[in-house]
Amino acid sequence: MGGFCLADQENTLLRVDGVSLQFGGVKALSDVSFDVKKGELFSLIGPNGAGKTSMLNCISGRYRPTEGKIEWRGDNLLKHSINDRAKLGIGRTFQNLALFGHMSVLDNILVGRHHRLKNNFLTGMAYWVGGARREELAERRFVETIIDFLEIQHVRNEPAGTLSYGLRKRVELARAVAIDPELILLDEPMAGMNLEEKEDMARFIIALREEFAMTIMMIEHDMGVVVDLSDRVAVLDFGRVIAAGQPEEVLADEHVKKAYLGEEDEVLDALADEQEREIA
Fold this sequence. Notes:
By secondary structure, the chain is an alpha/beta fold. The N and C termini lie far apart (41 Å). The protein is built from 12 helices and 10 strands. The strands form 2 sheets. A 6-stranded mixed beta sheet has the order 6-7-8-3-9-10, with helices on both faces. The protein has a 4-stranded antiparallel beta sheet with strand order 2-1-4-5. The chain folds into 2 domains: 1-89 and 181-280, Rossmann fold, CATH 3.40.50; 93-180, 3-Layer(aba) Sandwich (Rossmann fold). It is globular and about 50 Å long. One of its GO terms (molecular function) is ATP hydrolysis activity. It comes from Notoacmeibacter ruber.
């Protein structure tokens, strides 16, 4: 019990304890453990196929672990459905965009507010004299705040499917933010973006912590972004955690370098860039 700290326990938002996930004879995750503390940006990194998205799917409820526990504020998260997890305060984006292409940007974001609606069918019938209209107006005001924050006012009425890739990624982030989550899970938020789009997304992610007080768990392959933004990092390889800690320490770990193989140069370059910034 020497390492136990009550303050750390109270500050822990999400705890993953010994999680394994198996599909037939294939083990996607093996005895994975880590925690995410309130207010931090925690990155989960690793080579392609390491099990990173599978881990997010276990947290968000798309998959159920074969073994292990996942706790949200000390409560068993696995007893809750996907919708319940959104109500608890867990939102996410997807590696492959999951927008409704025929719907407008505004309507896509409003989908993220659906679970917040409290009015039922009967109160909906009394829309003009009851609380349903007031509720809808309040939801729309919140959504407009998100649209302004992510700088997508100019496409708010455009069908999401007609937008550029970078803008669609921004709309998906807006929909996740619309849930008003305490923890937001970002699955490769900068994949496929050019440098300018990455810089914008990094700025938005930083602001989510500072202005919206969100805790962030992120999967990202750009090691420069990981080093710049993350408080702590865990590395998965073949479904197992092989390193965890401060970004600069983790990326200097020999096991991490070997796991990345062809990406080793990127890891070393990110570490060198970080050291140069510290010297400057």
